[in-house]
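Input (structure):
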């Protein structure tokens, strides 16, 4: 069980790292969606099953975490450098984030 917890935490870190390094978080999100569809993944597994058996976080949790990180990154970019925002996130905007309000940016929801 402890190994599974550590593994899921590492997967979140790996997702965040790859999104930052490749500077294409939306492509990572799209890839996760595609893999989930092709593998017929359970999008809403029971939390106890996840806790006991899953070595990777559920797909929806990974996507939510990526979008939350993306909104924080977009906030930093917008605040400190419009150039970076335009250069690395051309097709994305704060309004593309979905979910609950982070409180960091108006209309940025995760």
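Output (sequence):
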């Amino acid at each position: 069980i402890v190994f599974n917890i550590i593994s899921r935490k590492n997967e979140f870190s790996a997702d965040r790292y790859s999104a930052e390094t490749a500077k294409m978080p939306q492509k990572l999100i799209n890839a996760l969606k595609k893999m989930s569809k092709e593998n017929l993944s359970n999008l809403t597994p029971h939390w106890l099953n996840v806790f006991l058996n899953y070595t990777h976080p559920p797909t929806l949790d990974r996507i939510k975490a990526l979008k939350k990180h993306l909104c924080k990154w977009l906030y930093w970019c917008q605040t400190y450098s419009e150039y970076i925002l335009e250069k690395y996130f051309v097709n994305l905007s704060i309004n593309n984030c979905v979910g609950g309000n982070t409180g960091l940016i108006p209309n940025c929801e995760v």
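Notes: The CA atoms of residues 19 and 25 lie 4 Å apart. Residues 93-110 have pLDDT under 50 and may be disordered.
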